Amino acid sequence: MNDILNKTEEIVENTKALGADEVIAKTTFGKYRQVRFSGNQVDINVAWNDYVTDLALAWRKRVVATQIRNFQNLAMNIKKLLELAKVSKENPMFGGFAKGNFHYPKSKADEKIRDLENPTDYVFEAIDAAEREAGYQIESGGILFTKFEDVYLASSEGPVGVDSRSAIEFSIRAFSEREASGHGVQCSSTLKNFKPVRAGMKAGEIARLAKNPKAGDEGLYDIIFDPLIFGSLLAVWASMASAFNVMVQLSVFVNKLDKKVAPEIVTLKDNPATYSLTNRVFDDEGVSTRENIFIDHGVLKTYLHNTSTAKMFKTETTGNAGLIVPTPWNIEMNPGEISKEELFKEIKRGLYLTNTWYTRFQNYAKGDFSTIPRDGIFLVEKGEIKQSLKDIRISDNVLSLLNNIAGISKERQHVHWWGEADPPSLSPYVLIKNVHITKSK
Amino acid sequence: MEEDIVDFALEHAKSKGIEYAEIRAQSQLQERLMLRNGILEAYMSAVDSGFCVRIIADGGIGFASTNKWTKEEAMEIVDLAFKYAKAARRKDKIIFAEEKGVKAKWVVDQKEKIEDVSPEDKIAKFVEIDKSLSSCGVNVAATMYSCSIDLTSKYFVNSEGSRISSFKPEMGAFIFVTVAEHGKTEQAYEQFGYSGGWEALDKWNITGKMIHDAKVLKDVIAKGKAIKHGNMDLICGPEVTGIAAHESCGHPMEADRILGREMSQAGRSFIYKGGPYWIGTRIGSDVVTVVDDPTIENSYGYYAYDDEGVKAKRRYLYKKGGINEFLHNRETAARLGTKSNASSRSVNYDREAIVRMANTFVLPGDMTEEELIEDVKYGVYMKSFTEWNIDDKRFNQRYVGREAYLIENGELKHPVARPIIETTTLKFWTAVDAVSKKVEFDAATCGKGDPSQGIPVYTGGPSIRLRGVYVI
Lengths: 441, 472
Hints:
The complex is a heterodimer of chains A (441) and B (472). Helix content of chain A is 23%, strand content 41%. Chain A is α+β, with helices and mostly antiparallel strands and 441 residues long. Chain A folds into two domains: 2-209, PmbA/TldD fold (2-Layer Sandwich), CATH 3.30.2290.10; 214-438, no CATH class. In chain A, a hairpin with a 3-residue loop joins strand 17 (405-417) and strand 18 (421-438). Chain B has 472 residues and is an alpha+beta fold. The relative contact order of chain B is 0.14. In chain B, a hairpin with a 2-residue loop joins strand 10 and strand 11 (322-323). Chain B has helices at 3-14, 71-87, 119-134, 200-204, 206-223, 238-250, 255-258, 330-335, 369-374, 425-430; strands spanning 20-36, 39-57, 60-66, 103-107, 140-158, 163-181, 184-195, 230-236, 290-292, 315-319, 322-323, 344-345, 354-355, 359-362, 378-382, 385-390, 396-401, 404-408, 411-415, 420-424, 432-435, 440-446, 455-461, 464-471. The N and C termini of chain B lie far apart (55 Å). Classes of the chains: A alpha+beta (441), B alpha+beta (472). Chains A and B meet through strand 1, strand 2, strand 3, helix 2 and strand 4 of A and strand 2, strand 3, helix 2, helix 3 and strand 5 of B. Strand 2 of chain A pairs parallel with strand 3 of chain B, so a sheet runs across the interface.
């Protein structure tokens, strides 16, 4: 391990010696495994090994980056990168890479995930659980994905660190009928806390409830969002909190710092904590990661920053540096004080939505968008599920949805799914009032 | 790229009890430029190079990849893929549709070699575009530019004797603009794509397109009126025709989706065996023929052989309004008793090749766009779109107009602010009564797969006229 850190530091030193002003190198040894399945059978088992050093340097405020995978030509690659910087164009807004010495906690990555070579049995257990819950023959598909990364970071500006990052996630979609399905996920950074059977059970339960769907109707609805679909909304709001997205107007949060953007019950944080799929002790500049409350009791308190964007906004980095722009890692919504069951009781006539996909915007700055619920869509009357529905669309505004949050459950789940609920989040059941639903005509 | 290691890996795979093995190596010189509001944020340049092995053993598939070019590593990933194939424990054994081994080499030429254009000139081009856009008489509040350049070499070998090498230079650009006028904002993005050299920049005319978009957005803010909801005629410009062809024809015709292999992520299809739609079923009017064609030279979705070594060809997806031909790789073709039509693509050596579109578009008719408009008493001309989406069975879709105009008595009137069509695949294609003769293409990145594989495609077609559809 120290040998690779030494080599990473050596890359930084050599690049600096050639004339770069500031240098960061991050070496990642990644081991990734995946099982993909459909129709209750494994379609493919996948293994990826990846060895890469991400190198970024600045020369007179010109920022260039590369990924090195062939270490035989290392010296030449570094030289070429510096030459590229010298003919590149100055970024007057570049605020330098993070400076200082940081002390990182020891990584709690689970080595059992690294050593897990054949996770296929988990898949079959979850399929069986879905089938038991659904009560009859179902068709299931999904993925099981494991990640173990050893990360070595060195910067000419001080930060030096080693981290290990482990993650295991499972996603299952079960069909009880052609148009009746349920989706469940399980996400963890440790094998001990990984319970794929729970995902299977949830998928099976929703698939059973979703049988015999009828076409939904347009209108305004009070809606309970399951943690999985709410994770998709959390991902949108967190992405819009990235300072870069604010600067290019890919955000509804432009000029809204210290303003009320949600009811008081809403507190949103970014936190790549130990439990999360995106656990890490430092960001890509070597800054210690931390919990950042970006919406505090309804008030937008900060954007998510790297060193450069922080300087532009006259504040400090929040430890959200990606290679070039700041990015959210793992979003947490503070829990409410009522149970999921109590939340349902607040619905006289509304909907319960479990998943969505294809969220697209007319205008990011305004927040007008639509997204298409999938899997279980339910009409709820007096707190009870009355009818399975299909073929509806949420056509609304993401700022309005944030403003119309009326209830949050105590229960939360760590969710992540494909590119839809991404980045991952710790997501509760949430009641949002007056949501516009449309359908095909 | 070290072909001897690839060949070694194949021989090692063949020495095991396999039913099929392939090694796919890829080396890619990548450049990325990103500008925010005219300022270069960063310039990235890298070489990504590695290889993967895919093995069928005991009717299961194992896949493993690495970027470490050693024989020891090659043996390790072959052994791993073999072990993983057997671990699948499938009841229904996977087989591939028959193909003969192919020996081929293909190259996409560059008229202006990307390697000969200096980084300074590449940066200067985009800075110049931003300057022109900023001084076009519209208040441009924000811009974001990204440019991607990939020089990709591939080497593919399989246990059936195929040996295919290729070189494809590819250029892409994505531009996002926000216009602010009278305290209101409107946004637009454009994507550009090309297989070939730096001459792409001349062909794209980014400056002209972006200035046009900025002026349209200004007009929509100043003069755009909402349309009174109701049934009316709708003319879709090539950009809207193209996205509809991609979303509600190309995707539902992917055989892996039809067979359920994408059920958990990208979803399934309204087309399935035993259902109301299958090959031969009507899905549109007689004037609707949608094809997918990877052989269009210099297109963003161009290839001569797919990533399973099958020779590329045009596929007729919807033909004269009928469901005609699915997109197949060798696995789906075997399951449906047919041959692959070369639709297997992968974005890199570390991703399995799956069923993908290439360039999906509506074939032209014989009318001019003016003739389409002339025959509309009341309706909307939706030239381009902003928001769009479609459900995961590819049946309920929605397109929101960006540049759109009211049509009254055969004449274009004022801009319409964000008209919306939200309808089904059947209603959309059945409502088409006329098709213009000029086909145009737009570049797009099609998303599918897990991990996601954003793959370059063209969407396109002529202008099409839909009668009596509900517009809001």
